[in-house]
């Protein structure tokens, strides 16, 4: 359906409108990284700045006689889901690799600390390859039946594993991508660690490719992750994603051949709106397009073509399918949380704009052409919306600005800190706190919540998880986006 003249007019006006509030992107970047300290599991270091947190999950992995202490809780619960955790690590690494040049030395160092907390743990999840890969720690349903702090969990901390030849291509492919991307991020500052990450990435990808199938197809994988993080999108995107990052980390033509050979045979099926922990296709296209800009590798042409096609969907005046916007200009996703999509797609938009600028090109959409700054304005609109330029006049980043959600859907944030109240409220008693109208006593600084609905409305109660629950995989791509605008604060 062709967009109406009114739609086009509104869209153009939204891009031309100046920022209503001058934003401190550097402060937002600092806080977006600090957030990860609030999501830590394990024994906390002396340098811990999110001081209301305490040690947790110190016996994780015990049921399988292995050490699975550490890592991140993915959201407002206390389970460690390895699939989204790996995507979080990949995006923190990509933020460092391609947007680190826009960060201050302090921000870059802090981002690497956040990344290493994830990769140290991911190394544990693949420590028993080629025979076993660890899927998750914690039983999702019992955990979700309780409202309690991570410091005093009494729900089962069962660790789940998949043994060869059980399929785990999506999980293993994402872990391989994370370790490969992180190997690039640490290459200069910690070359020994970088080599370890790369070697494990190669080994993990071998498992992913050799034992094809979704990890939810394995009994233990299904029991652990579904219905929360079983991949509805299949496993083929993670195989291409892992290969793309290994190609970039190693320069090996073996991974180039893999990308060329398998794209068509995998029968790629696109959802332009979807880039996140489950669907990687448009991310792969943007990542691989770098080689087309630099080297014009003919076999990779379909990747760049699809990346360009995705970028064209951002502009209503172009032909073909289009991404949706809320009335106030936020990229809109009809499924899931709005800000996850907005943050992840903004990352890709800025990355592609960088390619175009570096090689003095424009975005070509049929007979229409767009300058790189046209893409950057769309990304900036998303960031400014998140930070407060929205109909609710609310920052969706906790702790940024004066007005932000005070009742976020997060167990540790909503229950008095163990440093203040030593006695655990208990599994069921915690629900009284959950249902109360009191603001959360602990500020999870930097947490970006799920965000508004498609009409820009927002219900800021912790009982409404879709609106108020933060996730690591929303913050991770936003790190790179905020880094760009912290270095270019006057872009308009």
Strand content: under 5%
Say how many strands there are. 7
SSE-based structural type: mainly alpha
Radius of gyration: 21 Å
Which regions are unreliable across 5 or more consecutive residues at pLDDT < 50?
A: 1-7, 12-19
By oligomeric state, this entry counts as: single chain
CATH topology annotation: Glycosyltransferase
Quickly give the CATH architecture. Alpha/alpha barrel
The best one-word shape is: globular
H and E order: HHEHHEHEHHHHHHHEEHEEHHHHH
Strand and helix map with partners:
Blueprint lengths: L4 H12 L8 H14 L41 E2 H18 L5 H21 L6 E6 L2 H5 L14 E5 L5 H17 L5 H20 L8 H7 L10 H15 L2 H13 L15 H15 L5 H12 L11 E2 L5 E2 L5 H21 L4 E3 L2 E3 L1 H16 L23 H4 L15 H6 L29 H4 L3 H16 L5
Antiparallel strand pairs: 1-2, 2-3, 4-5, 6-7
Helix pairs in contact: 2-4, 2-18, 3-4, 3-6, 3-18, 4-6, 6-7, 6-9, 7-9, 9-10, 9-11, 11-12, 11-13, 13-14, 13-18
Keywords: Carbohydrate metabolism, Cell wall biogenesis/degradation, Cellulose degradation, Glycosidase, Hydrolase, Polysaccharide degradation, Signal
GO molecular function, one term: cellulase activity
EC number: 3.2.1.4
List keywords for this structure.
signal, about 500 residues, globular, about 50% helix, 3-stranded antiparallel β-sheet, Endoglucanase, single chain, about 5% strand, Glycosyltransferase, two-stranded antiparallel sheet, mainly alpha
Molecular structure report:
There is one protein chain. Helix 3 packs parallel to helix 6 (169-185) and helix 6 (169-185) runs antiparallel to helix 7 (191-210). With 492 residues, this protein is mainly α. The protein is globular. A hairpin with a 5-residue loop joins strand 4 and strand 5 (331-332). It is built from 18 helices and seven strands. It has a single domain, classed as Glycosyltransferase, CATH 1.50.10.10. This is Endoglucanase. Residues 1-22 form the signal peptide. Keywords: Carbohydrate metabolism, Cell wall biogenesis/degradation, Cellulose degradation, Glycosidase, Hydrolase, Polysaccharide degradation, Signal.
